[in-house]
Write a structure and sequence with these properties.
0% strand, 16 helices, mainly alpha, endoplasmic reticulum
């Protein structure tokens, strides 16, 4: 039994779920009522079993173990959160939502309740409510970059691009060396038509990830589009002030041409190592 308890502790410490394995290890412990041998960690083992049971669809097992915890820790917010998870698994979403809301009324800083409520609202398609709850959560937990990233995704699902961009800026401030976030931000700025910002971010991507195909595609597309807009602007005598101001931040034509050429060279180099079909497709696009 001690070996099973030690393996369960190892899984907890690694922050892995490994739910099927957890249930296999827990089965003999539950049958022989040996979980108590874990001492003070017994309650962590019970929680681990509940989460694994929910993952594997064993709701009755989760309910029976939850009863043990609820009897021992009657007013525990942690146990209430587990109760909410069981309610969700049973399809009692309204009851779960009420429970999480009551938990937050007692303690607005309850991270577990906030995240479960947000996840529940999102799963029900109540995106505006999920956004509202996530904004409230970030008022208190502004250093949670994953929450900012989730809020960005929610805003994008509602086509609220400026708000999504703001959230990504917060993510980048906290994770400046992660090229994926710069890439996501660059693509969003490109979509919004902020080409000068998009180009800078694409360049940042290829600086952080030197063989990033999407990054080099972004550099080429943005540089080519900036050159096209610049030519159109010069041939038009009635440019708007806003367009003029935006183009003031754009690199010189020669710089844009060189960036496009360098991006093309890097893409050709990458696709030279790919299959013939991919290589031909890429070369055809790059020549257009």
């Amino acid at each position: 039994m001690s070996n099973s308890l030690a393996l369960l502790a190892e899984i907890r410490q690694s922050s892995e779920r490994r739910s099927f394995e957890v249930l296999k290890l827990a089965e003999p412990l539950m049958l022989k009522r040996s979980v108590s041998q874990a001492g003070d960690d017994a309650w962590l083992v019970y929680e681990q079993i509940i989460l694994a049971a929910l993952d594997e669809g064993q709701i009755d097992l989760a309910k029976s173990v939850l009863f043990i915890l609820d009897t021992r820790f009657k007013d525990s917010q942690r146990v209430k959160r587990l109760s909410g998870l069981v309610m969700e698994a049973l399809g009692h979403t309204d009851e779960a939502q009420t429970l999480y809301t009551e938990m937050l009324e007692k303690d607005a800083t309850n991270v577990l309740a906030s995240k479960r409520l947000i996840a529940l609202l999102k799963s029900q398609g109540q995106i505006p409510l999920a956004i509202r709850e996530l904004v409230t959560y970030l008022d208190t937990h502004g250093n949670d970059f994953e929450a900012w990233l989730e809020l960005s995704h929610l805003y994008l699902s509602q086509h609220l691009y400026p708000q999504a961009a703001f959230c990504l800026e917060e993510v980048i401030l906290q994770q400046p060396a992660n090229h994926y976030f710069h890439l996501h931000y660059a693509e969003l700025q490109y979509t919004m038509g902020n080409l000068d910002v998009a180009l800078k971010e694409y360049l940042r991507v290829v600086e952080l990830s030197t063989d990033n195909v999407r990054g080099f595609y972004g550099v080429k597309l943005t540089a080519d589009r900036l050159m096209t807009e610049s030519k159109k602007g010069k041939s038009s005598g009635n440019k708007k002030d806003q367009q003029s101001n935006r183009m003031d931040n754009v690199p010189q034509q020669a710089t844009l041409e060189r960036l496009s050429e360098l991006a093309t060279e890097r893409l050709v180099s990458v696709y030279n190592r790919a299959s013939d079909t991919s290589k031909k497709t890429a070369e055809k696009w790059l020549k257009e």
